[in-house]
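Practice problem: predict the structure.
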Amino acid sequence: MEHQAQTWNGTANRPQGQQEDKPAEASIPPNRRRLPWLKPHPLLDFILSRMNLPNDAALCRRLEVKPYYISKVRNRRERVSAELLIALHEETGISIRELKSHLEV
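Answer:
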């Protein structure tokens, strides 16, 4: 009688090829998931045009925030924080209500 070796993947203690059913997003690492909330592109693009800035890096310098934060916001890996809205309000004079209106669902 032949013995057929099974290969184990070690994480789920199942033979390879027999993966448990997971939602597609569960297999994406948390730092690569896109948040399903509001889309920040319209807000950031509006601010860039209103402040006559060429890109997000210039916006970061103007607001004195780290470039990776604006990148994460634009790619929906971070929410638009209250601190960011306040900084935008203080820098531009645009009301927070109007800034929030540029966020799309």
